[in-house]
Amino acid sequence: MDPTAFDNLKTVLEGAVYDADLQGRIAVTDRRDLADLARLSREYAISFQQAGAPEPPVVCTVRLTIDFAELVNERLHHGQAGCRLAVSFTLPVRRLSVCALIEGTLRTIWGKERIIRQTLRFPFPHERGSYENEAVVEFARLIYEKNAADLPEMVPYMISSLEQLQPFAGQ
Question: How many C-beta atoms surround the C-beta of residue 136 within 10 A?
Fold first, then answer.
């Protein structure tokens, strides 16, 4: 059986990230390849930070997902299966005003048409501690196998985002 579009896109994405790791630009910190048997979906996520990043580091996680409908479309109808791609950046922040700076930075790097969502988390009780900010850059379309060449081209944007967000970590 041929590999799915998801498998092919995952391989391209993983290779591009590990190439940057081998060049010493980033350090891969986590990787997950999940199959959800209840929902019949797949998810691949790889996390990394700048090589030699100061504490606390900004962590980038790239997620590639495919749902049941797309998997069925590819297997039964021999159609093009589309995957969702999201790039998130996680960093601690102390002041809520930093969130506007984070969004502005990501919009400058990724473009105004991208969807950017930020979620703040904190442990209870929260007394003067920092928030964990997860800023997610979403693409309002599916990614297809024909877009595979775009994935390696996105890695420099991810690295630039890490570099430009690092000064906000802990602020």
Answer: 18
Return the structure tokens found at 101: 């700076």
Angle at 145 between CA 140 and CA 151, to 5 degrees: 65
3-class state of residue 113 by DSSP? coil
Neighbours of 123 (CB within 10 A): 10
b vs e for 28-37, b when ≥16 Cβ sit within 10 Å of the residue's Cβ? beeeeeeeee
The pLDDT tens digits along the chain (171 residues) read 466 888 999 999 999 999 999 999 999 999 999 998 988 889 999 999 999 998 899 999 999 999 888 877 767 766 678 899 999 999 999 999 999 999 999 999 999 999 999 999 988 876 777 899 999 999 989 999 899 999 999 999 999 999 999 999 988
Walk me through the domains of the chain, giving residue ranges and CATH numbers.
Answer: 5-168 (3.30.1460)
Angstrom distance (rounded) from CA 20 to CA 27: 8
Q: What is the Cα–Cα distance from 119 to 136, expressed in whole angstroms? A: 8
DSSP 3-state of 41: strand
| Residue 140 φ/ψ, nearest 5 degrees | -85, 30
Rounded to the nearest 5 percent, the helix, strand and coil shares of the chain are 35, 35, 30
Phi, psi for 24 (deg, rounded to 5): 80, 15
